[in-house]
Amino acid sequence: MYRSHNCGELRAADINKEVTLAGWVQKSRDKGFMIWVDLRDRYGITQLIFDEARTDENMMQRARSLGREYVVQIKGTVIERESKNLNIPTGEIEVLVNELTILNEAQLPPFTIEDETDGGEDLRMKYRYLDIRRNPVKNSLLFRHKVTQEVRNYLSNLDFCEVETPYLIKSTPEGARDFVVPSRMNPGQFYALPQSPQTFKQLLMVGGLDRYFQIVKCFRDEDLRADRQPEFTQIDCEMSFIEQEDILKVFEGLTRHLLKTIHNIDITQFPRITYDEAMAKYGNDKPDIRFGMEFGELNAAAQHKDFSVFNHAELVVGIAVPDAASYTRKQIDALIDWVKRPQVGASGMVYCKCELDGTFKSSVDKFYDQADLAKWAEVTGAKAGDLILILSGPANKTRAQLSALRMELANRLGLRQPNEFAPLWVMDFPLLEWDDETGRYHAMHHPFTSPKKEDIHLLDSEPGKVRANAYDLVLNGNEIGGGSIRIHDKETQALMFKHLGFTTAEAQEQFGFLMNAFQYGAPPHGGLAFGLDRLVAILGGQETIRDFIAFPKNNAGRDVMIDAPATIDNAQLDELSLVLNIKG
Amino acid sequence: MYRSHNCGELRAADINKEVTLAGWVQKSRDKGFMIWVDLRDRYGITQLIFDEARTDENMMQRARSLGREYVVQIKGTVIERESKNLNIPTGEIEVLVNELTILNEAQLPPFTIEDETDGGEDLRMKYRYLDIRRNPVKNSLLFRHKVTQEVRNYLSNLDFCEVETPYLIKSTPEGARDFVVPSRMNPGQFYALPQSPQTFKQLLMVGGLDRYFQIVKCFRDEDLRADRQPEFTQIDCEMSFIEQEDILKVFEGLTRHLLKTIHNIDITQFPRITYDEAMAKYGNDKPDIRFGMEFGELNAAAQHKDFSVFNHAELVVGIAVPDAASYTRKQIDALIDWVKRPQVGASGMVYCKCELDGTFKSSVDKFYDQADLAKWAEVTGAKAGDLILILSGPANKTRAQLSALRMELANRLGLRQPNEFAPLWVMDFPLLEWDDETGRYHAMHHPFTSPKKEDIHLLDSEPGKVRANAYDLVLNGNEIGGGSIRIHDKETQALMFKHLGFTTAEAQEQFGFLMNAFQYGAPPHGGLAFGLDRLVAILGGQETIRDFIAFPKNNAGRDVMIDAPATIDNAQLDELSLVLNIKG
């Protein structure tokens, strides 16, 4: 036994006990006749004391030699601390050391192992094992474990069975780019790493497993944006003999359970809005509803005067920024500059101040009188003291721009509190979306999503108008989960592939196994997948997912700690029947 | 709601209830005026009844049209069954159907969906989703889930934190062959899929996580023997500030918990033997101790007479087969033929019958008298009525041969009962083993295993004699887990790589990140990994692991259901900077 207690557990009740502790030297203070050392492990910090009067000189010397992050084991007596530190649970005691063993020395770490470190992102990634010693990262990993345990227990209690689906599967052209794995035993052939276990979980439903889940790694070889990882984790779920309502109920229950268990927050019923409604009200299919600023469409209220910018716009739409009528000209100009940035792309912005005295002051006073502006205030829900900001142009683009502005203002105004949680369901997504680049429709969710029965007749005439039995779970402006009721018969699945531009032969080659399976008695089924990395980060009140991933990769897909990917031997390539062909 | 109850839950107490059920048609019996249908789902089977007297003719017709594996939904009334079937929990009732909906038709399945199917292995793999409908496979998957949930809860309660380590890592030449993954973003470079999260879990210990576990897929690109899979699952565990005894205690506790929870078997303390002892007593480092037949070494008792075969042998060793003295000459000759098979490779076998009258009759009576043979009986522990079987030759080879014979006899004699469980620890494995092919020592466990302190001085002089702080957990003749106390300082790790034939530069390039990490304060640590597939199969009383894997691959590493691996587009290869180079 290396220790009788960990560094977080000794209390006043333990005074006079003989204990053995082991851990890392967090810091030491040397006052000559006394040396105090903070000994740290995963569970906490305990203060050690070496006292000239009670410790032999040799041990005083050795205590003096301890550097930061040395690994030590001590034996000693728990004593009452003279100056208590009530900020930490062990702060009433200290341990008078009578035996000291240095288990391992340590070089000076390249950054401080403190909650607020002086290490930059790159350095922290290279020495991730040191970064993990810091409370913010360590606690994020412990938190992730707690969440996954809660998820597993919750779903298991509801008869969900966790099944491991294969990692070495088949590459498909639909969707994002696959990572592939050359097969040595089958020269010229490749496995692919799964982007999700989608088809396998559907086959488990065909297999009668009824309720499946899996917390599983998925892979996408995409150009990485910030905060995207080539490997990520899903809570993947599927149920049979269910309707959409059953699925929403189960996973709303799970989310409610997590919010309750982790944050002691009770949320009774999650609001639901349709995709169309979300786009109209928030310009966004994953709206943050912790704050208002809902869109007010001003076409009717603004297109009857001589202001040609509005008159020629497909959409005129505004939001009321609470208590912002007092913004200075300079502040407003800054906002106008902000919306003109290439990332947002608006060409201009109109504002209207709703003064406290009930009058209005707008940047287009030349065209609109007080009655017009009062109408704008009514439509956008602005009250006295608010500032109305208005964008105009093509509908979709303008909505996206105003959504970006709405989020920016919410951030600036501190309306996005990480400890406040506002989930909602967004329903009735479009089945297909047009892609200019490939000149065809793509599945908005994936090709296995079922169209709404009442919309199927539109598939040929107006495919963009067909709604899907698809739903997203949104939390604080992030999509944390998404799913659908699946197609479960061969004919509809074949029709779907046809509309996605597959020939019959292509569909059969890629997804024949699934369509065949549907011919042997597939039950109605559907499911949902949560993005675990994001879910855990949001539940943990964080913006970025990296601290919740033990060993993340950087934006170039590299693990800088182990220096991967790397070259491999020619012999290894040869065994795989491959040669390199690097251009440029 | 597709159903009010599942097909396994209705009981006599539910009689007169109106219910909705959904499931698959297991079979139907048509007596003209009455039709019975067995409706099946994951949870059980409920009998439906269509009765001419109480059911309209149209529905009788539709009931008649139901084929095997059709997916149907019914509404009806629970009634008492006339001829009760007490073999199934729902056997006291049946449901008189008043509404029938066919949710999906089904083609005739290619094999029967019964506990004993007429489908061969290949067909079952191709239609695995149908195979999963069969109880033996379905129950194996549910059992696996139960075991993993127990493992997770047990370890979580002991403060173990499950951490997901990366799947896209770096290829290393040590150990088995890696699967590699070309990186599009880093042309000419490859990730590797992990053979185990070994280095990452050690880095988590350096990171202070203290107690880690993970149920995780691992990958080995090896020529597949029967019952080996290219992807397999480990319960991977690691602890800090521990000695070997602490690890044995925790994982013995886990195994005991599983045996208790799953089979209600109490096993107090697991026996422990050393590797040397296991080899001497059983010729095997994973002995099945559910039965005796321990080896008796007969050199002293047999090398003093004129039988040159024994006199020239390095080892003469025998086992006592219980109650086999009555074997006929023909039976014994068959055993002699059996040990001469190439898979065993013995050149001959000597036997000695211990007759019930206390006399002995051996195949070498010419050389040995009754007193000699009595001595053999004493050494092998043979009692009257037993048959002593003796092999001789080079020690290691002969032990392996006798071990194979021992297992074969135990199988024939029914001594390996799947519902009896006999775990044991095998300790003190050699650190290194000589490999003739590469002409160097290899790590028996892996290069991170620590040598026993008292043996380190032998590293240069007699490396084969150095024992490791390594241990295996053996259950019923299978290694279900293995682990070690790790090296935790850079010097010892560098020394180890040197002895494995690495140059300093090679060691640094491959494992520099780990050796560097050791310089920043690594704690003493060690761990263990269970092979989950095997563990679950043995706990489930099965010999083969396939039924416990949802979608296994065949011996050529192919998933015959989805037909993977497969060729990929040239465009895809091009993006990866690769071209094919297939020989022959």
TrEMBL record, chains A, B:
On the tree of life, the source organism's domain of life is Bacteria
Q: Where does ATP bind?
A: 220-222, 229, 479, 531-534
Q: Which Pfam families match?
A: GAD (PF02938), tRNA-synt_2 (PF00152), tRNA_anti-codon (PF01336)
Q: Supply the PROSITE patterns for this chain.
A: AA_TRNA_LIGASE_II
What is this enzyme's catalytic activity, as reactions? tRNA(Asp) + L-aspartate + ATP = L-aspartyl-tRNA(Asp) + AMP + diphosphate
Keywords from UniProt, A to Z, are: Aminoacyl-tRNA synthetase, ATP-binding, Cytoplasm, Ligase, Nucleotide-binding, Protein biosynthesis
GO cellular component: a single term = cytoplasm
Where, in this chain's numbering, is L-aspartate bound?
174, 220, 445, 486
Q: From the UniProt entry, list the residue stretches annotated as the region Aspartate.
A: 198-201
Q: Which residues form the Aminoacyl-transfer RNA synthetases class-II family profile domain?
A: 144-552
Q: Where are the transmembrane segments?
A: none
Q: What class of enzyme is it?
A: ligase
InterPro entries from the xrefs? Aa-tRNA-synt_II (IPR004364), aa-tRNA-synth_II (IPR006195), aa-tRNA-synth_II/BPL/LPL (IPR045864), Asp-tRNA-ligase_1 (IPR004524), Asp-tRNA-ligase_1_N (IPR047089), Asp/Asn-tRNA-synth_IIb (IPR002312), AspRS_core (IPR047090), GAD-like_sf (IPR004115)
Q: Where in the cell is it found?
A: Cytoplasm
Q: Which GO terms describe its molecular function?
A: aspartate-tRNA ligase activity; ATP binding; nucleic acid binding
Q: How does it assemble?
A: Homodimer.
Q: Which family does it belong to?
A: Belongs to the class-II aminoacyl-tRNA synthetase family. Type 1 subfamily.
| Entries under NCBIfam families matching the protein | aspS_bact (TIGR00459), PRK00476.1 (NF001750)
Q: What does this protein do?
A: Catalyzes the attachment of L-aspartate to tRNA(Asp) in a two-step reaction: L-aspartate is first activated by ATP to form Asp-AMP and then transferred to the acceptor end of tRNA(Asp).
Would you tell me the protein name for this molecule?
Answer: Aspartate--tRNA ligase
